[in-house]
Protein 1
Amino acid sequence: MSATAKPAGREPELLGQTVVVIGGSAGIGLETARRASAEGASVIILTGRNAERLEQAAREVGAERTAVFDANDPAALLAFFQDIRTPIDHVMVTAGAPHYRPPLEMLPEEARHSLSEHFLLALNVARSAASKVRPAGSLIFMGGTGARRPRPGLAIVSTVTVAMPALIANLALELAPTRVNLIAAGFVDTPLSASLLGDDLDKRRDELRRTLPIRRVVGPADVAALAIHIMSNTALTGATYDIDGGQQLVS
């Protein structure tokens, strides 16, 4: 059975719902949109910064519309949500990338930006989408697991990794009954991972296949399946869900 196939006779989990994917032109965002479509979402809206790649993604998943803008621009983000005239059921945010540079090599402004980028994005999405999301709908953000243990050079990404769950839990109370959750992923085999690792990508894949308890590399479809479950299970809010194939157990 394919990653997006559903068992025969089962009611689609997102039938008739509206799903917005911020950062939906590739990787986890695109796979989540594809899975949402397979689960009956009637309106899928993709956003990203690369118009050509976004249009290709929209064709693949049958998205109703796209929007090209930088999600880290608060004014553009607010205008995007204000322009949506129908209620939203779910917002999945995959935009942004981790910052792995040693903090003492960063200029003060660069360090400030690296620390605040993910927090401000989450806050701005929450602020902009709050009045648009239906009760029992959800906001889902992406975080990580790989930097929970202190290691040289990872102070910035480690700080963001451990602080995001606290922000998400508090937003779940602030935005109730809208649900707010965090997916914390380890290594996921995406174009972003390829760009970060470069020539070391295949070496990292091989290492994970040998050492992970699941004996394979986590892919975008794995994360998308978790995202759709969080969307459809209306008892889930304020929580962080790890998906790393057991990477934390062996690192």
Note: The chain has a mean pLDDT of 90.
Protein 2
Amino acid sequence: MVKEKDFYYKKSRLNQLRGFCNVVQCGCSGVKAAARAHIEPTAISKQISSLERDLGIRLFERARGHRLSLTKEGKLFYELAIKQMQGMDSLFESFNEHLKNFNDNHLNIALHYMAATYIFPNIIGNLLKQKGFKRIKIDITEMSKTEALKKLENKEVDLIFFPFDINDEILNKFNILKTIRHNHALIISKEHPLANKEVITMEDLSKYDFLVRGKKVSFAIDNYNLKHSNIFLGDCSIDTSVELVISTNGITAIPEEMFTHGNLKYNPNIVCKNINHLFQAAYLHALTLKNSIPKDSVKFVLSELKKIKAD
């Protein structure tokens, strides 16, 4: 019957190989190898004995006075084993270096344009005030939700933050944090026929040119069969879309927060109309990839987002 300690040494292949290589590098001295590894000589002896038993060969000749010398098989095995051990040591060193960089030096985020403007500046500011993130590199990119989901799945970004309708199906490969409601609104000219109407209907919207605000915009209104103008705004700024709304008497969609918390509310030529009643509720969600090691910086961002309550 194999004793418990023998079983441990037999199954710990890394310890066996490390012990064997240490003995050879210490001039075939088990005592010196044990001192080098800060373990008892009996532990080295068990590592070598169990390795020889597993291989079915003798790696050392044993002379009087416990002097050891490599057999020809032992020499061949050492030539192979030392390459494996050097690779393993290099792996550990490389992993530790990458882990340090992974946790401390780089944060890559993909955001909805409203979140990039009105939510994340304060979060990033708070992050940089923390002692551990003084030298962190932060990449913040506005993009479409579809593109962001692909990049997150491919581990090209660490975290994404976008609106999702309540009936949207989010794959279970993602961790999900629900935050604040994403309010749907229209920007129209103060001279527009809908400017003074209290309750806007889908029939009302279908009568007017709708200016589509580019592929980065994730907005429920884009999914409806509205009459579109021949102006496509691409990735133009909100200021460009506002000026075009005024000059063409068209309509465009924005998150209401961009109006209430930004400079748009001071523009005397436009009106913001809430249209939440026309669409399913949407909430801003933070997504991270499951089964991946969370960065310290990501943990901090999520802790900040948890302070934003969903209604």
Note: The first strand starts at residue 60 and ends at 62.
